[in-house]
Structures are given as C-alpha cells and as structure tokens.
Amino acid sequence: MAVHVQKRSHRNVAVNGQSRLGVSVNKHPRRIVLANKPDTAFRRADISPRLIYRFGPLLEAARVITVYWGTEWNDALVSGYPTGLDAFFDYIVSSPLIDQLAEYSMNGYTIGHGQHDKSVHITDSDPGSSVTDNDIQLMLQNEIQLDNLPPFDQNTLYFVFLPPNTSISMGGGASCLSFCGYHDHINGQIFYAVMPFPNCPGCLSLGGNNDLFTALTVVASHELCEAITDPIPGQGWYDDTYGEIGDICEEKGNIKQLSNYTVQLEWSNQQDKCV
C-alpha cells in the first residue's frame, strides 16, 4: 500500500537533542555496506568467521516500511524506482533469503517470514543535497509523531531511500565514498536502514552489472538480513573481527539470483560459508 504525505512545515523537529516523541538521538557504532567492495572478503589466517549471539533483540517477522524521502522521487527519471523496490520487498520478506536466517533463531526469538507493510512517500520535507544520520533519525521520529509513518513495534523496520543528488554522512564517513547503505536504531525502539541512491562508481558496481536497480537490491538485501539478525548493532548476532552477517561476505561476486532479483550472499554458521 503506497501512501503519499503532502507538504506541511515541521522544520524544528528537535529540542535539546530530542524529537517530539521524546526519544533522544544517540550515537554508537554502526555497520555499513562498503563502497568499492574488495575483490575478496577480509580474513585473518588465525580467525575464522563465527557469528556469536549477544542476547539482544532479533526481528522475528520483519515488518518493512519503505520510505521515499523528498520531492525528487517525483522526477520522471527516478519515479519508477519506488514501484520496483516495493515489488522487491513484497517478495524478499517471505523468500528463501529469509528462510536461511532461521538458523539464527535464539533466546525465544524465531526468525520467519515478514511482510512489506506499507510504502510512504514523504514530501512535507526535503533532504536537500546532504543530510546526516541525525537528520534521518529526527525525520523518522517526527513523521511517526505526525502519523505520516505507521507506528513502530518490535518487528518494524523503516527502510529510508534517499533520492539522487543527496549524500549522507554518518560515523565519520560519507555515502559513495565510504558506504552504500547502513542500518541502525534509536534507543533500541526504532529500527531503520538508510539507502543512498547508488549512482556513483563505488556503489553502482555492487551488483556486478553497473545497474542502479540491481545495486539497490544487493544493498537492501544486505541491510535487511543484518537488521533482522542484529537490529541493535553488536547486540544480536555479531563477529568481533568481521562484523555482521552481511559484512562477512562482502566481496565482488558474492551475489545470487532469487526470482527476478539479485541479492548478496550472507554468512551461515551452520554451513561455515557465504550462502
């Protein structure tokens, strides 16, 4: 279901570092999809990858809300991407990609199929040419408060897509230079992923064919699996040396086809390899 939110002014969304929801904006380590993916994944000779559960929450049935921020998504050159991405999420949340995450069910959490609950186009504010992770957090909290976004529960995952010509900085890095996407949380309550538009060499190449839509699905699959298995980075399934389930498998060519879509391979503890 697509929802279009029309423009209303709400520029001052934070007071003393808090949104209208009263949730403070926190800072902590995050995990990213690397720009300029290496030819081979990083490995230490003396340490093999192994995800260890840290007793944090998991998303049992991910409830994905796709969020397209800004009026630029109305541009004819990019207006078709939300339709394609929404179809991708309709499929992927109940696909074999999610089935393979079942091995990470733990501590009363049973990982299974989710749903793509809603698609929302936010046009009451524009990200402009550059935003920060703080801006993303404040936008999400404000739009939830205004009922423009569905309320969150323990399985909700907001996927924020930024339009072309908008860069984002986070953790000392910048989109296209350091990363092509990331996921995070706000106070362990609001889980979200951020997807800059991959129209740059470091991100466009991730799908192996320099296709924008393929790059988007590869990054989205990486972040979806990581948000499900480690929604609070480092407190779910995590490897202190190699990172999260998708980070371990970051190398050129570590992709596969599911139905009509290209996704990234993810680490399997049971099979001891990227699958």
Note down, in words, how this protein is organized.
This protein has five helices and 18 strands. By secondary structure, it is of the alpha/beta class. It has a single domain, classed as Collagenase (Catalytic Domain), CATH 3.40.390. Strands 1-7-6-9-13-12-4 form a seven-stranded mixed β-sheet, with helices on both faces. A hairpin with a 4-residue loop joins strand 17 and strand 18. The protein is globular. About 9% of the residues have low confidence.
Strand order of the largest sheet: 1-7-6-9-13-12-4
Percentage of residues in strands: 25-35%
| Rg | 17 Å
Any guess at the CATH architecture? 3-Layer(aba) Sandwich
**Which blocks of ≥5 consecutive residues have pLDDT under 50?**
6-30
CATH class: Alpha Beta
Q: Mind describing the biggest β-sheet?
A: 7 strands, mixed
User: How many domains would you count in the coordinates?
Assistant: 1
Order of helices and strands: EEEEEEHHEEHEEEEEHHEEEEE
Number of helices: 5
- Quantity of strands, as a count: 18
Average predicted confidence as pLDDT: 89
Helix content: 10-25%
Kindly name the structural category. Answer: alpha/beta
Distance between the termini: 31 Å
CATH topology heading: Collagenase (Catalytic Domain)
Large-scale geometry: globular
Write the layout of secondary structure elements.
Layout: E1 2-5, E2 14-15, E3 18-19, E4 31-34, E5 52-53, E6 63-69, H1 81-92, H2 96-99, E7 115-122, E8 130-132, H3 133-145, E9 156-161, E10 167-170, E11 173-174, E12 179-186, E13 190-195, H4 201-204, H5 212-229, E14 237-238, E15 255-258, E16 261-264, E17 267-268, E18 273-274
Parallel strand pairs: 1-7, 6-7, 6-9, 8-10, 9-13
Antiparallel strand pairs: 2-3, 4-12, 5-14, 10-11, 12-13, 15-16, 17-18
